[in-house]
Amino acid sequence: MAMLFALVMFYGWQHFSSIEYGYRVESEKQQLSQLEEQNRQLRLTEAQLGDPARIDTMARQLGLTAPHPGQVVRPDANTEPVNAGGPVLAQATPVMPAIR
User: What is the value of pTM for the model shown?
Assistant: First the structure.
C-alpha cells in the first residue's frame, strides 16, 4: 500500500510540475511578446526623433543657421589649411616629462 501511495504521489508531483512549467512557458512567451512590442515602439520613436526635417526645424527655432563656407572642418581632410585665414584643426602634441 505504501508503494502504491508513493507512486501516486510521484505521478501527482510530476503532473503538477508539468502544469507549472507550462504556465511558466506561457508567461515567458507573453513577456517576450511585450518586450518585442516595446522594442518596436522604441525603434519607431528613435526614427521619429532622428528625422532630419524635425532636427532642422528645432535648430532653426533655436536660432541656428547653416554653416558658412570655411566654418566646417572635416577631421579626415588634410592637416594643411586650405586658406591661411580659415579655421585650423587643433592637434595635441605629447609633452615629455622633465627628467631630473
Answer: 0.51
